[in-house]
Amino acid sequence: MDAIMVRWVDMARSAAVLDTGFGALDLRKARKQSLTGPVTFEELGYEAFPIKFLVPDFMVPCNLYIPVMAKGEKLPTFVKVLERGQSYSEAWRKALKEQRVHELYVEAHEVAELDGYFHEILRAYAEDEATPIAQKALVLHHYGEFIARRLFGEVNDGTFVKKAGQWADAVVRYLRSNRLRAGHIYRRFMKNYEMFTHSVQVSMLAMAFCWHMNWRHEDVVRLGSAGLYHDIGKVWVDSRILLKPDSLTREEFAHIRRHPESAYAHLASMGWMNADQLATVRQHHEAMDGTGYPLGLKGSEIHPFARVLHICDCFDALTTHRPYKKAVTPFKALRIMQSEMRLSFDRHLLYKFIQYLGS
Fold first, then answer.
1. First CA to last CA across the chain, in angstroms?
2. 196 and 145 in contact (C-beta within 8 Å)?
3. CATH (domain of 196)
4. Domain coverage including residue 55
5. What is the total count of domains within the chain?
């Protein structure tokens, strides 16, 4: 069963909807229903595109549709609501929000064009000092999420490693030219856990922190692109375990703890990343006192990239709602990291991280 929802409309109105488009479709009176059966949206030739990725005053990059299904029908009809080249206005954003539309759909063969859409926006923003830095940070976050959603869904496609590097380079260039502060980045973060957004948030925070520490541009980019992949091993973990609201059994916990090794084995076999990046992915759960996993490394045995990622990973995990726990405030998260978890981290880096967040 496809987890994404379609909209049901009254049979008598369905023909009018197809004739007149979005204006005739009152989705406030529709109800959501999961797409059932063996067919998925991907098999129908469409992929989801979250509305939040669209930026007002920029041209729509390709035709965007909403799946609508008349009662009695087994498959949805994809109704075009936004057309390629159309200006996406603030009025459109409000209309879609009022209609409770959170996702539109793009034809699968046009998904690649969306990458250029984010590049166009970021190029325009680079030359526009009037755009708030917080808005630029938001677009960088959404661009990273767009890539992460695809690389987690297509783990054998090496093109996303290059795209991850391009995204990381864009983040670093904005860090250099726009002086993105911790608050600009952190306030863009999603508070409900998703594997995609977690990967983006950990990566962005790690890059910003390392830039703050005056790391070299190329090292920050390598760390950032590896950060986007750091949890790719969870693709091979049963989702029922990842989303379990109760305590894990010993066997389930052991299963989750295999994800860094699974990620390392996959990425190493593909030949996509250098040794520093592979070590980052493999070691991001290692602890300075040797109590981490999967190798039980300690101190200087742990790669500097992985030590940074471990701090940022834990901070985002603590401040994000999970199925099994509530989020805590950034202040409380840092207090926990300084007290209960202090032996897990590089003491010098943790001190600098706290200073950075305070900046």
1. 47
2. yes
3. 1.10.3210.10
4. 1-111
5. 2
Contact in structure between 230 and 280 (CB atoms under 8 Å):
yes
Tell me the two tokens of residue 176.
């250099």
User: Do 140 and 217 sit in the same domain of this protein?
Assistant: yes
**Are residues 272 and 166 in contact, defined by beta-carbon separation less than 8 angstroms?**
no
Same domain, residue pair 102 and 233: no
Q: Give this prediction's pTM.
A: 0.86
Helix (H, G, I), strand (E, B) or coil at 81: strand
Q: What is the pLDDT of residues 270-313, one digit of tens each?
A: 999 999 999 999 999 999 999 999 999 999 999 999 999 999 99
Of 81, 111, 141, the domain-final residue: 111
Pair of tokens at residue 185: 């980045």
Q: Give yes or no: residues 192 and 244 share one domain.
A: yes
Quote the CA–CA distance of 253 and 246 in Å, as a whole number. 12
Helix boundaries (H) for the chain: 11-20, 90-98, 113-126, 133-153, 159-178, 182-186, 195-212, 217-228, 239-242, 250-256, 259-270, 275-283, 304-318, 330-339, 347-358
Q: Which amino acid is at 263?
A: A
Distance between CA atoms of 201 and 247, rounded to whole angstroms?
25
